[in-house]
Design a protein that fits this description.
The chain has about 950 residues and is α/β, with parallel strands linked by helices. The strands form 5 sheets. A 9-stranded mixed sheet has the order 3-9-10-8-7-4-6-5-11. Strands 15-12-16-17-19-18-23 form a 7-stranded mixed sheet, with helices on both faces. Strand 24, helix 32 and strand 25 form a beta-alpha-beta unit. The chain is globular and about 105 Å long. It folds into 4 domains: about 190 residues, no CATH class; about 300 residues, Thiamin diphosphate (ThDP)-binding fold, Pyr/PP domains (Rossmann fold), CATH 3.40.50.970; about 240 residues, Rossmann fold, CATH 3.40.50.12470; about 120 residues, Rossmann fold. E1 component of the 2-oxoglutarate dehydrogenase (OGDH) complex which catalyzes the decarboxylation of 2-oxoglutarate, the first step in the conversion of 2-oxoglutarate to succinyl-CoA and CO(2). InterPro entries: 2-oxogl_dehyd_N, 2oxoglutarate_DH_E1, DH_E1, KGD_C_sf, ODO-1/KGD_C, THDP-binding, Transketolase-like_Pyr-bd. One of its GO terms (biological process) is tricarboxylic acid cycle.
């Protein structure tokens, strides 16, 4: 710290926050060459950096704050500037502050709205008078500090260059970034070109060609199918040259795959003019003539597509994801797909696969999954090396008429500031500025491997869709839209005026495109036929199979011994917590057959066996490393060093990849992410584990729109597993039910599996079956809580080496079937309550049958029940209230399984608005009553 004398000397400082720009300029010079600045400043910077960290590169904001507090006297600043003119030196400081103001606030003055309606509030940040400057100073030369170019310029030139860079068609927001290197990189890219790219005539013609195609498709569809919904791109036509440049530039820098997500607007244009979908196929969809071999199909503006595009760096595979009407939910799906592709390529530099997500302005700022996805962007288990976000900002949220109807921030993109992503607003009527910003954004992502946002400020020429009448709610805007020339027209006129083209050239481009539409064939010149390569995934083995496809899930005794040893072994020097150490000791005993195996052992054995077979295993959830209920402990933590050891990563050399991730505190985005991963990687066991089953409520959109229906809408296979802790333990309404009824209600056409395993061996075979069987469909598991350590919920080694998953488990006690009068069917934890009560009462007239798979329903249950020829009472027992659980959704299956004259009765809680009681005593009484009701009185 400074000595007392200096503190007193600097107490009268005039330095305030307004001088931060000057300090930062001096500090920039100090970082580049400490000897280039005055000794007084150098000593202060040296002293400060040593006090903070011993390093030279300290955040500029901290430097500014330090010297504000230190109160460095004006004379020191004048000495540093090298001038004896105090008036000039004061202006010099103000000029540097003005430069910083343009960088920070220039976007608020930029010409961003093509219609000229959106006017930002006037501020004085860029007024010369604020800095005690005027036009009288225009011919005075000042130092430019960190401004790109010569070290000094006349004030007039400084202002003109700053205006051109920050206040024309591009509004750049990057001063919120804390990394000085990233800010400097953006400054130099913008200021070196004055945000005005110098494109060749040939390149400008390419831009015009892309705009012509964008407009041409929309006009063609408008005339051929008037009034049909297409969510046209018109007004945001510059999206097409933007995407073309993204693909070509990404390919040039080594990208091999691009995964693209977007909602409706402009999707048809992307499919035809970017991806190479044949117009004749699109026309057939408009005419309603496209045949769907199986499933429901989906509307044309939800459809996905894949193609290979030729670039200077070789072929780039572009995949456009299928997307439902929930506008932003595709974003985390894209990220999961990208992560799977990166891991398949073993690319830890995040260079070969690029995610691009296209948003709507109101959805981007309005839907929470956007924030959740941003939050994952740099998290270890989810990062993908940065996403290029494009906001098609048509300035109307469905029919809202003002920005303050749809958001509480200045820009719709402000949410991206939470991760310090740079944001580039650009006027969509200036396609050259759009392409320049595209290059800048992609290069930033490539350099820094973090997200970047492009706000394409445009308008929509029609309403929300083509059947809408927008003038009913936006009369002023649509009066302007009606008179406003199209982006293609504006740009063609600009090129003609500059002598790049003549009128005939533009007209011929339009005519040629119409001819291509009439022909109906592929219109993309750089489209390539897709070829198989080492990273191509073959889904053919999983087609035309069903849930009854056989699969061997048992292990040989030799394989069991090897894997059991691997999962129960850890380095001697690892200092384990006492409970974990005891658990690992027990696992060694389980491996040797000394004690029965528990849930955690059998589950871990399933993962180990799959990894040994070369499959990948990925588990994510909010407490997945150890398991919410302290049973898994896939990650062993050293209590002294903090290091960890994962036995499942040490099965053998060349094993499959294993990842267990303690996820960010999100359900919707994380589940969508894992869905995207699973649809991309059929040889990975991908598991999302809820901390409690009802946490899945927060991800219902993913379940409804993707997991339950993705295959039948879009033909997308997916083997995702959801582990949802479920069971009534007296923990209240929020931590009892995984809402089994919701999943069963969604079940049809073998779209999902819903299982309720009740033993460790069952979970072992169930998880192995999910991979070994050549059938990929989501698996929903009502996972246990108390059964993880229940004294009866154990298994023997032989059940893993000889068994299989049993969808129905018959009575296990050695009862005389001829004496059985009542059959109780159940699933899950309640089985053990029934079993213990029956044994305590020494009943021999009731058989308990477990249904371990509720969907697809096991039809052979009927054969199992038929063996009890004297039974005439049939009960379905569940813990859940009557209007929940399996009863309403599956009672027809239960009824079909009993003899013709039999009738299935219900035993369980009464119907309830809440899943469970929160009063412990009431829970115990309800549980006792339903068990007694199910077992009935002894005859």
């Amino acid at each position: 710290m400074m000595d007392k004398t200096l503190q007193e000397q600097f107490a009268t400082s005039f330095l305030t926050g307004g001088s931060a720009a000057y300090i930062e300029d001096i500090y920039e010079q100090y970082l580049e060459d400490p000897t280039s600045i005055d000794d007084t400043w150098r000593q202060k910077f040296d002293q400060y950096t040593q006090e903070q960290s011993g390093e030279k590169d300290v955040a500029h904001s901290e430097i500014q704050n330090y010297f504000r507090q230190a109160g460095l006297h004006r004379s020191r600043m004048i000495a540093a500037s090298g001038s004896g003119d105090k008036s000039f030196d004061a202006k010099q400081v103000n000029v540097l502050e003005l430069i910083q103001a343009y960088r920070a606030h220039g976007h608020q003055y930029a010409n961003l709205d093509p219609l000229g309606i959106w006017k930002q509030a006037k501020i004085d940040h860029l007024d010369l008078a604020k800095y005690e400057l005027s036009k009288m100073d225009f011919e005075t030369e000042f130092r430019t500090g960190s401004m790109f170019g010569s070290t000094s310029k006349k004030l007039k030139q400084i202002v003109e260059e700053l205006e051109a860079t920050y206040c024309k068609s591009i509004g750049s927001e990057f001063m919120h970034i804390s990394d000085p290197g990233q800010k400097q990189w953006i400054q130099e890219r913008l200021e070196s070109s004055l945000s005005s790219p110098q494109f060749s005539s040939a390149f400008k013609k390419q831009i015009l060609s892309a705009l012509t195609a964008a407009e041409g498709l929309e006009k063609y569809l408008h005339n051929k199918f008037p009034g049909a919904k297409r969510f046209s791109l018109e007004g945001g036509d510059s999206l097409m040259p933007m995407l073309e440049e993204l693909i070509q530039r990404a390919g040039s820098s080594g990208t091999k795959e691009i995964v693209l997500g977007m909602a409706h607007r402009g999707r048809l244009n992307v499919l035809v003019n970017l991806m190479g979908k044949k117009p004749e196929e699109l026309f057939a969809e408009f005419a309603g003539k496209k045949a769907v071999e199986k499933g429901s199909g989906d509307v044309k503006y939800h459809q996905g597509f894949s193609s290979d595009i030729n670039t200077p760096g070789g072929a780039v595979h572009v995949a456009l994801a299928f997307n439902p009407s929930h506008l932003e939910i595709v974003a985390p799906v894209i990220e999961g797909s990208v992560r799977a592709r990166l891991e398949r390529r073993r690319d830890d530099t995040y260079s070969q696969v690029l995610p691009i997500v296209i948003h709507g302005d109101s959805a981007f700022t309005g839907q929470g999954v956007v924030m959740e996805t941003f939050n994952m962007s740099q998290a270890r288990g989810y990062k993908t090396g940065g996403t290029v976000h494009i906001v098609i900002n048509n300035q109307v949220g469905f029919t809202t008429n003002r920005p303050d109807d749809t958001r509480s921030t200045t820009y719709c993109t402000d949410v991206a500031k939470m991760i310090e992503a740079p944001i580039f607003h650009v006027n969509a009527d200036d396609p050259e500025a759009v392409v320049f910003v595209t290059q800048l954004a992609l290069d930033f992502r490539t350099t820094y491997k973090k997200d970047v946002v492009i706000d394409l400020v445009c308008y929509r020429r029609h309403g929300h869709n083509e059947a809408d009448e927008p003038r009913a709610t936006q009369p002023i805007m649509y009066e302007k839209v009606k008179k406003h020339p199209t982006p293609r027209k504006l740009y063609a006129d600009k090129l003609a005026e500059a002598g790049v083209i003549d009128d005939k050239y533009a007209n011929k481009l339009s005519a040629d495109y119409r001819d291509k539409m009439d022909d109906g064939k592929n219109v993309v010149s750089n489209w390539l036929p897709m070829k198989q390569h080492e990273f191509t995934v073959d889904w053919s083995p999983y087609l035309d199979t069903d849930w009854q496809t056989p699969a061997v899930t048992s292990l040989s005794k030799e394989a069991f011994d090897k894997l059991a040893t691997a999962i129960s072994t850890y380095p001697d020097e690892l200092n384990l917590q006492s409970q974990v150490k005891r658990l690992m000791t027990d696992r060694k005993k389980m491996a040797n057959g000394e004690i029965p195996m528990d849930w955690g052992f059998a589950e871990t054995m399933a993962y180990a066996s799959l990894l040994d077979d070369g499959y990948r295993v990925r588990i994510s959830g909010q407490d997945s490393g150890r398991g919410t209920f302290f049973h898994r402990h896939a990650v062993l933590h050293d209590q002294k060093t903090g290091d960890n050891y994962q036995p499942l990563k040490n099965i053998r050399e060349g094993q499959g990849q294993f990842h267990v991730i303690d996820s960010v505190l999100s359900e919707e985005a994380v589940l969508a992410y894992e869905y995207g991963y699973s649809t991309t990687e059929p040889r990975s066991l991908v598991i999302w584990e809820a901390q409690f089953g009802d946490f899945a409520n927060g991800a219902q959109v993913v379940i409804d729109q993707f997991i339950s229906s993705g295959e039948h809408k879009w033909g997308r296979l997916c083997g995702l597993v959801m582990l949802l802790p479920h069971g009534y333990e007296g923990q209240g309404p929020e931590h009892s039910s995984a809402r089994l009824e919701r999943f069963l209600q969604l079940c049809a056409e073998h779209n999902m599996q819903v299982c309720v395993p009740s033993t460790p061996a069952q979970v072992f075979h169930m998880l192995r079956r999910q991979m070994v069987r050549k059938w990929r469909t989501p698996l929903i598991v009502m996972s246990p809580k108390s059964l993880l350590r229940h004294r009866l919920a154990t298994s023997q080694i032989e059940e893993l080496t000889n068994g299989k998953f049993e969808s129905v488990i018959d009575e296990i006690d050695n009862l005389d079937k001829a004496k059985i009068k009542r059959i109780v069917m159940c699933s899950g934890k309640v089985y053990y309550d029934l079993l213990e009560k029956r044994r305590a009462d020494e009943r021999d007239d009731v058989a308990i049958i477990r249904i371990e798979q509720l969907y697809p329903f096991p039809k052979h249950l009927k054969d199992v029940i038929a063996e009890y020829q004297n039974a005439d009472e049939f009960i379905w027992c569940q813990e859940e209230p009557k209007n929940q659980g399996a009863w309403y959704s599956s009672r027809h299956n239960f009824q079909a399984s009993v003899p013709e004259k039999g009738f299935v009765e219900y035993a369980g809680r009464e119907a309830s608005a809440a899943p469970a009681t929160g009063i412990a005593s009431k829970h115990v009484e309800e549980q006792r009553a339903l068990v007694e009701d199910a077992l009935g009185r002894k005859s």
